[in-house]
Design brief:
With 272 residues, this protein is mainly α. It has one domain. The protein is 71% helix and 3% strand. The relative contact order is 0.16. The model has no long low-confidence stretch (mean pLDDT 89).
């Protein structure tokens, strides 16, 4: 369903609780990951618990974020995984056509490590989506509209990546664009598991097919046999970010089309 235009008092309450959620959960990403309790698996339990507690405080169902106990969240997760994988496959095909590298299978590839990598990538993505694109993001959308909420969350996501070792260039290009993409997936599906699936699959498949030099989790990819030039790195970043932006445009078009179909003029429902 589209987001309804709420009353001023509802927007004020949503803003207060959204900001409180961000403040309460900020230690989970502001501090370093050296503390055992803040490793992905226990952190997932913490974030799920805090999210469900805030929903209980609102007297709202977990289904508001796509967290209900049914087959639907699983279906949304699987759909997100397929979508994220397809995005990276298309990017890989474009790169193969444009970059002068040999592409081949990695003889040291190990399915065991790839499967383990998928598990931890999925858990980590779920944690990050709960931190940045679940309750707090949904409350900010209600309070200030989708695009202002996207800006706030994207800047927080960029700061998160800066604190965890990313360069300024990566944090404020790829991370920001990724945040916009995952946020639009959430808005389109009203499911944090759908955005988790896209997030996890994009990271995992990129390591499977775009890593040079290859790791034990790289199945197939470009083999330069030398250091990449600045132009080659820029071309890769341009294609990665450009295709992600194109996916954002298509998602936003889909959201607008859905809302025009579902929201009559008397409801005032709209995505801002």
């Amino acid at each position: 369903m589209p987001y309804e235009s709420p009353a001023a008092s509802d927007r004020s309450a949503a803003l207060r609780r959204g900001l409180l959620f961000i403040v309460v959960t900020s230690p989970t990403w502001l501090v370093t990951k050296r503390f055992p309790v803040l490793q992905p698996v226990p952190l997932l339990g913490i974030m799920l618990g805090v999210t469900l507690l805030f929903l209980w405080w609102d007297n709202r169902s977990p289904s508001e974020l796509g967290l209900e106990l049914s087959w639907r969240p699983v279906a949304k997760l699987l759909g997100g995984l397929v979508g994220g994988a397809l995005l990276i496959v298309v990017i890989a095909l474009l790169l193969r056509a444009m970059l002068p590298f040999d592409w081949g299978f990695n003889k040291t590839f190990a399915w065991k490590f790839a499967a383990t990598g998928l598990f931890f990538t999925l858990v980590t993505a779920f944690v990050e989506e709960l931190q940045f694109r679940a309750y707090g993001f949904e409350r900010l959308i209600t309070a200030i509209g989708m695009w202002p909420a996207q800006l706030v969350v994207a800047l927080l996501f960029a700061a998160y990546y800066l604190l965890h070792g990313a360069t300024w260039q990566v944090a404020f290009t790829g991370s920001v664009i990724g945040s916009l993409l995952f946020g639009l997936v959430f808005v389109r599906t009203r499911s944090v598991l759908a955005s988790t699936g896209v997030h996890a699959a994009a990271n995992w498949v990129r390591e499977m097919v775009l890593t040079d030099p290859p790791t034990l989790r790289t199945w197939f990819g470009p083999v330069a046999g030398r250091n990449w030039t600045a132009h080659e790195r820029q071309t890769t970043a341009l294609i990665l970010n450009g295709m992600a932006l194109l996916a954002c445009v298509l998602l936003y078009w889909s959201i607008r089309r859905r809302d025009r179909g579902l929201a009559g003029p008397e409801t005032g429902a709209r995505v801002r």
